What does this fold into?
Amino acid sequence: MQKSATQSFLELTAQQDFLGEIRAYLAEHFAAPPLAFVHSYGCQQSVYDGERYKGLLALMGYGFTDDPKNASLILYNTCAVRENAEQRVFGNVGALKGLKKKNPELVIGLAGCMTEQPHVAEKLKMSYPYVDLVMGANAFGRLPELLYRVLIGKKRSIRRDPSDDLTLYEDVPVIHECDFKAFVPITYGCDNFCSYCIVPYVRGRERSRRPEDVLAEVRGLVEKGCKEITLLGQNVNSYGKGLEPPIHFAELLRRVNDLPGEFKIRFMTSHPKDCTHELIDAIAECNKVAKHLHLPVQSGSDRILKAMNRHYEIGQYRELIAYAREKVPGITLTSDIIVGFPGETREDFEETLRLIQDVRYHALFTFIYSLRSGTAAEHLPDPIPAEEKSRWFRELLDAQGAIGGELLKDYVGKTIIVLAESYAPETGLLSCRSDGNLIVETEGREDMVGQFIKVTVTEAMNWALRAKTAE
Ligand code: 5AD
Ligand code: SF4
It folds into this structure.
């Protein structure tokens, strides 16, 4: 039986006890706080989970390092969405064997989506004997207990069944990678079962955080000076399912927008089947919501969309885009596309090319189909050779490169507000993001990082804009 309740992490007394034991153990065994290296692969949700793991590890008494060679604990927070992400993890774990040999006390752990798959956990158990801890994405709340078993019990802790804990943990300390931009999850899991996608199997059923919990987290971040909040979910548009009183994503967006402070609101990802006119109206009307819509289409062919189990047709998708362009003039549009889904023909692919020529996205995230075991598409006939798919993929990239470059030219001469994100002392350039999520480079100083600045665009490069400080 899966349970999906909200639970304060601070009230999990058993886990608090394990946490306390670990803290005492580390204080006794290390002269200075031992260091943890936490690395997250994959999507923003995974990055956020990594930040929560760091929050828990800090409570246990760990400090942090960016160099695995200095670490007493290495935790890889993994991604399962495509095979190459998994291969990278296996490669990187393989490279840790030498470190473990030099330092047998080193604890090596893997968490996240990849390890929710029983065959992956089994492979880690059998072929990677120096991996001590394997826990899935949903076993988050048991990290203290599992780590206790390894550190103090001196046993490997390898979880081979997918975890069925769908609890929404609140009051978890989070160590944010950046102090002016933060992710805030609003839903966990996914109920859509797109036929290519592993996420619903590894993350479990969709559940929504209570609006008051989301609002409290955003408020706290903004009070600490955070300038950009990205609301996260596999399908933010279905936010609210199962909540009492009922609430929809558009309403949540409006409530976040009403919080005091100067900050930008972004969100991802939107599923077109649940993207409503109300949501687009909210984007138009909420002054803090970025005028950007990432609306993954995946394919331009109705036949392929049906086989992908996406539940919309391309005509409906085009209608949404037209509505967004009408209501939010100048809105930036981006999308995800999969090339080479099983059974996709050249004609289907050409429909995708036609769609992107018509919509003219600012940017696309493009992927070659990757077979995921256990998904509905796993056994579909897939006759197109990999080289052919790669050719289509390059064709798509070339077409999009030209469109994206053209669209950037429209910004030359415009004065816009951007958030400065990083500074390169070698060039004296700040790298910034526009409201529409475009990269803007401008001259500036290190102390401007994390601030909104007003710039005038002077030049469109292929992938970014050049600007100068506006008067
Ligand atoms: N193969 C290729 N791309 C995939 N995506 C999800 N699953 C797969 C897969 N099996 C892509 C989709 C999704 C994005 C996050 O990753 O485009 O929107
Ligand atoms: Fe995967 Fe589809 Fe869910 Fe996105 S909406 S996580 S693509 S199943």
Q: What stands out?
A: The longest strand covers residues 415-424. The first helix runs from residue 13 to 29.
